[in-house]
Design brief:
Number of domains: 1
Largest sheet: none
Number of helices: 17
Shape: globular
Number of strands: 0
CATH class: Mainly Alpha
Distance between the termini: 29 Å
CATH architecture: Up-down Bundle
Length: about 375
């Protein structure tokens, strides 16, 4: 006889109900791995800009379109993915889109021209769209409020390993074997992530959400915009997206055009940005314990945006200065888990996936 407070598995071969801790730990680990891959794919183009422009005959505008296609697909998918999480849980929608990503990553490796590469980037954007939101949603369903911020902050920091791999290691690999074999390794990682999430992330949506129609859920998502506290967080979302987008899409062209760096030194410079983000992800929870959640968010966001202002005023003031200001700006993206924790409780449980979605590339939220 099943106790009333025990979560039933989503299917007969799911993990047993008597092992919820193992279920949560395995699911969070796999989603963290997928998140690290997501960070890699959203960052990797910055390292190989000249190589892609040469092989595909892309102008700066053409490369902008190639890079933007990932983020546009990522953004468009957010609200449908959030609703799917509410209805079906995290595992099935995420595994389906990761399968799209596996095919797209292979297409990108084999792409004969810019059009095929752009199509592959669209597929990769769709694949990466559910990962971070799914990690947060799954963690909020499986963990207590006390453990949530600690575990998600740690997963956020571990995800930065993917961004780190997209810097100096990728630059060195490209200089040794070329960008196509290097990206083939990441394609294998996407296949592994797809299988792992499909096999082991077994959860359910909410019965109330499953009984509602898609139009009614979209309407309810729109109604959530009437929440005044939510509008205090949306500008923060835009600021985080701007800082992360510059680091992921345009830091490589900036270093190449302004300072003339090749792929290997560009990779080293971008490694420093990833290390800064990695360390910041571990530092912020310490600051929260010594201060307050709101104070840490406000203080660090001003600190990071100071880097953006200084970089805009003096963009060519030396390579060390430029990298330092970019690193400072990029750390604003590490505020994601803190902002989620700040928004905890704003959204009704049945609308968790759809409620905390901000359709700006690299900035998607869900809360219960």
């Amino acid at each position: 006889m099943t106790p009333s407070n025990t979560r039933l598995p989503a299917s007969p071969d799911a993990l047993p109900a008597h092992a919820p801790a193992a279920h949560a730990a395995r699911g969070i680990a796999l989603l963290t791995f997928a998140f690290a891959l997501s960070q890699f794919f959203r960052s990797c183009l910055a390292v190989m800009v000249p190589e892609l422009q040469h092989d595909f005959g892309l102008s700066p505008a053409g490369f902008g379109a190639l890079s933007s296609s990932f983020f546009l697909a990522f953004a468009v998918a957010q609200i449908p993915v959030g609703i799917a999480f509410d209805r079906y849980g995290v595992g099935r929608p995420t595994a389906l889109l990761l399968a799209v990503g596996a095919v797209s990553s292979i297409l990108f490796v084999l792409a004969p021209n810019g059009a095929a590469a752009t199509l592959a980037q669209v597929g990769l954007g769709l694949a990466c769209a559910p990962v971070f939101m799914g990690l947060l949603h799954f963690a909020s369903e499986q963990l207590s409020e006390r453990d949530y911020t600690r575990v998600v902050s740690r997963s956020n920091a571990m995800g930065m390993i993917g961004a780190l791999c997209a810097t100096a290691p990728l630059g060195w690999a490209i200089s040794l074997i070329g960008w196509r074999p290097s990206m083939a390794v990441s394609a294998l990682g996407m296949v592994a992530a797809c299988y792992g999430v499909w096999r082991f992330v077994r959860d359910q949506g909410h019965a109330e959400a499953r009984s509602a129609s898609w139009p009614s859920m979209l309407s309810e998502s729109t109604q959530l915009l009437k929440l005044a506290p939510l509008w205090t967080l949306i500008p923060m979302c835009a600021a985080m997206a701007a800082g992360t987008a510059f680091r992921n899409a345009w830091s490589g062209p900036y270093l190449a055009d302004v300072f003339g760096l090749g792929s290997a030194p560009r990779g080293v410079a971008l490694t420093l940005l990833s290390v800064a983000g990695f360390l910041t992800a571990f530092l912020l929870p310490v600051l929260v314990r010594r201060s307050t959640l709101k104070g840490t968010i406000a203080g660090w966001s001003c600190f990071a945006m100071a880097g953006a202002i200084l970089l805009a005023l003096w963009p060519d003031n030396g390579i060390g200065y430029g990298v330092a200001m970019m690193a400072l700006l990029s750390t604003i993206g590490m505020l994601h888990p803190l902002v989620m924790a700040q928004g905890r409780g704003l959204i009704p449980r049945r609308s968790a996936g759809a409620g905390w979605v901000c359709s700006i590339p690299s900035c998607s939220w869900d809360r219960r």
